[in-house]
Here is the input.
Amino acid sequence: MIVSINELGVVRRNITRADRAAADRLGGFGVATVHEAMGRVGLMQPYMRPIYAGAHVAGTAVTVLLHPGDNWMMHVVAEQIREGDVVVAALTAECTDGFFGDLLATSFRARGARALIIDAGVRDVRDLTAMGFPVWSKAISAKGTVKATLGSVNIPVVCAGALVNPGDVVIADDDGVVVVPAAVAAQAADAAAAREANEAEKRAKLASGELGLDMYKMREPLAKAGLKYID
Amino acid sequence: MIVSINELGVVRRNITRADRAAADRLGGFGVATVHEAMGRVGLMQPYMRPIYAGAHVAGTAVTVLLHPGDNWMMHVVAEQIREGDVVVAALTAECTDGFFGDLLATSFRARGARALIIDAGVRDVRDLTAMGFPVWSKAISAKGTVKATLGSVNIPVVCAGALVNPGDVVIADDDGVVVVPAAVAAQAADAAAAREANEAEKRAKLASGELGLDMYKMREPLAKAGLKYID
Amino acid sequence: MIVSINELGVVRRNITRADRAAADRLGGFGVATVHEAMGRVGLMQPYMRPIYAGAHVAGTAVTVLLHPGDNWMMHVVAEQIREGDVVVAALTAECTDGFFGDLLATSFRARGARALIIDAGVRDVRDLTAMGFPVWSKAISAKGTVKATLGSVNIPVVCAGALVNPGDVVIADDDGVVVVPAAVAAQAADAAAAREANEAEKRAKLASGELGLDMYKMREPLAKAGLKYID
Amino acid sequence: MIVSINELGVVRRNITRADRAAADRLGGFGVATVHEAMGRVGLMQPYMRPIYAGAHVAGTAVTVLLHPGDNWMMHVVAEQIREGDVVVAALTAECTDGFFGDLLATSFRARGARALIIDAGVRDVRDLTAMGFPVWSKAISAKGTVKATLGSVNIPVVCAGALVNPGDVVIADDDGVVVVPAAVAAQAADAAAAREANEAEKRAKLASGELGLDMYKMREPLAKAGLKYID
Amino acid sequence: MIVSINELGVVRRNITRADRAAADRLGGFGVATVHEAMGRVGLMQPYMRPIYAGAHVAGTAVTVLLHPGDNWMMHVVAEQIREGDVVVAALTAECTDGFFGDLLATSFRARGARALIIDAGVRDVRDLTAMGFPVWSKAISAKGTVKATLGSVNIPVVCAGALVNPGDVVIADDDGVVVVPAAVAAQAADAAAAREANEAEKRAKLASGELGLDMYKMREPLAKAGLKYID
Amino acid sequence: MIVSINELGVVRRNITRADRAAADRLGGFGVATVHEAMGRVGLMQPYMRPIYAGAHVAGTAVTVLLHPGDNWMMHVVAEQIREGDVVVAALTAECTDGFFGDLLATSFRARGARALIIDAGVRDVRDLTAMGFPVWSKAISAKGTVKATLGSVNIPVVCAGALVNPGDVVIADDDGVVVVPAAVAAQAADAAAAREANEAEKRAKLASGELGLDMYKMREPLAKAGLKYID
Here is the structure.
C-alpha cells in the first residue's frame, strides 16, 4: 500500500488523472457492465452500499488513508479535490465511525467532488440525501471522530478490498463500486460499449420467450458436461 | 439435500406443484401470518431481504442448486418455469456474487416467473426495480459469474436455512420469505385465514387503549409466574 | 444491569422521567449533534437501523428486558407507557426474532409511545411504515415468539451497547440512536444548541470554497505533526 | 422441514437408521473426502466448529428441533438416543445460547451418543473437553436456556444449512460436518474409498517435486483456456 | 454510561471493590453456574473469547473507556490496579485494533491484575500465553494504536453488552465472561454454591442412564404441553 | 489490482524477490513489531487466523488470484514457488470454500514454500497441522472446488485488505499477517530491530512496578489534555 516506510503523513499534490473523456464515458455504463468489461476484477466488496438509491457517478480518484476514529485527513484531502473527482477513503483498520457529514460534504462539493467512497461510516445521511451528495460506505453511524493523527493523501490505497491509485476512475451505482486503472480507462470504456452493443437485441429475444439456453447455444455444452433430464 | 449421489447434474422436468388456488390464497396473507399459521417453521433466515420495499408475492417453487461463482444453471432453470412460479436458488456454499441481472429477469418473466429467491447476490437492481421484478437475496453485488459447472434443477434444496421442495409454495414480503410444503398449502391457508379473522377486532380494541394484558387475559398467568410490581 | 439478583420479574411503575421540555428540545437536534454534545458517548451500535427513512424522534425511555424468542413482557411494558415515551427493549442474549408487529404498535401508540428501539427483530414492517410508527431494530424478521418467560420492566438495561435507565432521553434518526441520562438532559440540550449555533456560518464558508484547513486553522498543527507535501 | 403443520410437538420413536457398517466405514474417512465422494453436497456451513481439535466421529442422526432460548427438547431427545447415534440439533431461528453442558453430555453419553452437532451455542466446554465428548457448534456461550416450549424429535431438520433426516449418517472432524443420506451410505463409503485409494501414490509423487500440472495433465487444458506465461 | 457530560477525561481513584472473599468464592464456580445463579443476566456477548484455553479467573473490576484506535488510557488505568483486580476495557465504538500486548501485560501483572477483558483486539498473544496472563477479547490483531485522546477510568462502562461498575466482580472462563454487581457478590456466591451442591448426585444418576425426563419430572408437563409420541 | 485488462490468465515467471537476508531478518520479529516499524500499515484484516497456534514464518510472496469456488490456479502457482517463498492467494470475491488441503501442501512444501496465506478456506487442517505446514486463512471448510476458470499468478493482488506485490516479504504469526514491500525490506528490518532494542529494558522496568505513565513521561501531556483525577 506504500512504497516507502516514510510515506505516512504525505500529501501528493500532483497526480495524473485518467483521461476525463474516458472517465465520463465509463460513467455511462453500470458498475456490473464495467466490471465485466474489466475481466471481473476491480470491484469493491459488496458491503459498500449507497446511502440512497439511484445514484450513479464516475470520477477520478483522489485518495486518503485514515486511522480508526480520526478524520483529520478528510480536511487535508479536501484541498486536493479537482472538478470531477471522487474521494476514496481507506482505513488502516476496520472502523464504523462517522467520518463524514454535511459540513464536509458542502466543502467537498464546493471543491468539485462528485461523491465519497469510504470504507467506514458516514453520518448526517438525511442531509446528504437532501443535498444529493452520494456516498458509498460500509456503515451509517453518528459516532464522531477526533483530529489527532496523520494519514496520507493521494497514495495508493486498498479500499474495501480494491486497490485504488490516485487518478484511477471510480464508477459507483446501486450495484456497488468498481475501479478502473487510469491507464486502461479508454480501453475499458470501449470494452464496456462493446458489451452493451447487442444487449437490446438480446433483451428483446428473451422478452419474447426465447431461452438463454438457445440464444447462447448452451444445450450442447451442457449435455457434454453430463446434464441429464428426467421426467 | 439430495437422495442419491448421482443427483447432481439433473433436471427434473415434471414436478407436482401445489394447488394454484391454495398458493394464491396464501399470497393474500403476510409472511408473518403464514409463518404463525405453520406453527413457526419454514422461514428463511432474516438476512434474505427484498431489493425494493413493498413487494409481496406467492408462487410455486422451481428450485435450482448453484455452485459459488457459477450461474450456468440459471439458464437451465429458466426453461422449467411455468406461469405462477417463483424461482428458488440455493448454493452449495456461501457466495455473494451477482448471479442474476436484468437479462435473466427478462427471461424469467417471459416464462411466467413472479420472483426470484436467491441465497447469494444479484445485480442490476436499479433495472430490476424499474421492471418491478422482485428479488429476495442475501446480497447485492456487481460481481459476475462463470458458466462452467453443473448443478441441478428441481431437486429439494436448502435455501437460507429453509428446505424447499419443488412445487412448494413460497410467500415473500418485506418481512422475509416463508415456505409452505405443497401437501399442506390449503390447510395452511385455512389456518392463516383463521388467524386473521379476528385481527380487526383486536386492533380496534388495542387502538382504543385496551391492553393486551387484559385482552389476552395475561394478568393471572404473569402473577403465577411470579411477576412483581413495585412502586 | 441489575442491582439485585431478585430483580428479574419486576415491573417498576414509578420512574422519574427526564424533564419533558428538555427531552423535546433534544428532539430538535440530530443524533450526531447530540452525541457530540455528550462528549461522544451514549450511542447505540450502528447495526440499529430505522425500518423506514426519515423518522426522527425523541422521548423518555421505558425499558423492558426480554429473553430470546419470548415477547411476553412487551405486553407488560405497554401498560407502563406514558405520552411521550419511547420503549427501549433489550435482550438477555442475541436474537433476531420478530418481537413486535402492527398489533403491538397499535397498542403502544394508543398508550402514547413515540417509537420502539429494540435490540432484536420486528415484523409487519409494511404496516408499521403505513402507520408511521417508527422502529429502530437490529433485524427485520417474520419469526414469531412465545409468551412463557418473565423479564423485567423499567430496570436499567443495556441495549445495543448503550446503558439506558428508565426515564433517560432517547433520540433517534437516520444516523442511529443516542441516549442522554435524565439528569443531564437540559445540559445536553444546551450543549447541542451551542454546537449548532454557528453551523450555518460554517456551512456558508465551506460552500463558498473556503477550506476546513483554514477555517479551523489546521495548517500549523498539521505541519507540526509532520505532514509533508510533495509534488 | 415439516410435512404437516401438526408436526411440531412430535417425537418419532421408530426411525430407520443407516446401516451401521456403512456408517462406521464412513467414519474412517475425513469430512472433505466424504463431501467430495458425495458430489460436493451435504456440508454444513463452515461456522460449525469443534469445541476441541482432533475429534473425528461418525454416527446415525437423531434430530431435534429447538426454539431460541429453550432447551426443553434436549431432554426429550436423550431418550431416543441409541448406541452409535449423533444428536443433531436445529433451531427455528438464529440463537447463540448455551443449550448443552456437562450434565446433558453425561446423559447423552450414557445413552450411547457419540457427539452433538448443534446450530447454536454450548457451554461447560472445559468439562466437555475433559470428558472427551465432542461437540460441533456455532458458538460457545454460558447463556442458559428455559424449558417452556415444545419442539420436535426425529423430524427432518435443516441444521447449519444442511438437511438432516433421522437416521442419516453424520461425519464430523476438524474440517466441518457432512451429512450422508441413509439410503446412499454404503454407496458413499465406496466412493470415498475409491477416492482415497490412489492418494498415497499421488502424495508420494507430489512430495518428490512432481507438479499437479503434470500429474493431472493440466497443461493442455490451461493453454486451451488461454493461460499465458510471461517472463 | 456516564452520569454527567463532564465525565470524560476523568479518573476515579477511590472505588468500592466487592468483598474480596466473595469475589474469590465466585472464582470457584464456572461462568455458566454464576450466570444461572444470577437469574441469567450479566453475561458479556459470546464473541468475547479467551486467547488461550483453560484460563479461569475472578477479580474486582477496574474499568477503562477507550476510543477506537487509541490506547492512551491503558497506561492511566494501570496505576489504578490493585492486587486481585481485573481490568475491563470498553470502547466508545467498535474496533478490533490491538490495544494491549506483552509490555502492558507485564505492567498490569506487576500492579496485581489477574486478567484483561477488552471489547476490542489484543496482540502478542504468543507472549501473553507464555506469561500465563489471560485475556478475553473480541479480536486478535497486530494493529497498533495511538496515544492522543482522553477516555476515562473507573466510570461505569458497557463492555460487550454488559454493564460493569468499578468494583464489580468479573468471572471469566472458557465459556465467557459474567459480571456480578459488588452489592450482590456474596448473595450470588451463595446461590452458585446452592446450584452446585447437588450436581454430583445428578451427574451420577445421568451417568447411570437415568433420564432428565424422569429426574426432573418432565413427562407430565410435556404431555400437558401437548407432546405426542408416534411410532 | 491489474495494470491491463488483458492481465487475467497470466503467469509471470520472473519476479524480483526481496533480499533473502532482509526477509529472514524480518522473520526474527513478531508481526506486531514489523507493523509498528512500518508506520502501522501493511496488515491484513484480523479475520486471517492461523490453523494452529505457534507458527511464525517469513518469506517472499508468490501471488495467485483465484475465482470463488475454483482452485485451478493453485496448481499453476505451485510451479512458480522457489525455496523460501510464501504463497499468497487472493480472491476476486468473498468465498469460504476449501481451496487447499494436504495434497497441495505436500506439493507446495516440495517446491520450497514455507506457508500459505489465503483469503478463503482450507481443509485437511488436521493433516496440515501434523505436517507442520502453516496456513493463515479466513475459514476452515471441507467444501471442495472445481478447476474451470483462469486466474493469474504473480500479479499484484489485494489479500484480506492488504496489497501484495510478488516478491514482497510476508511475515505471519499468531497476531496476524503483515506485508513489507520488497524495496523497503532492509529498512523495515532495521526499524524493527531498533524498536526491539530497548524492549528488554522497558519490560524489566514495568515488571518492577514502574508505570508507563512515568516511563513514557505521559503525566504532563495527559494533564494538558485535561485529564482530571477525582477521589
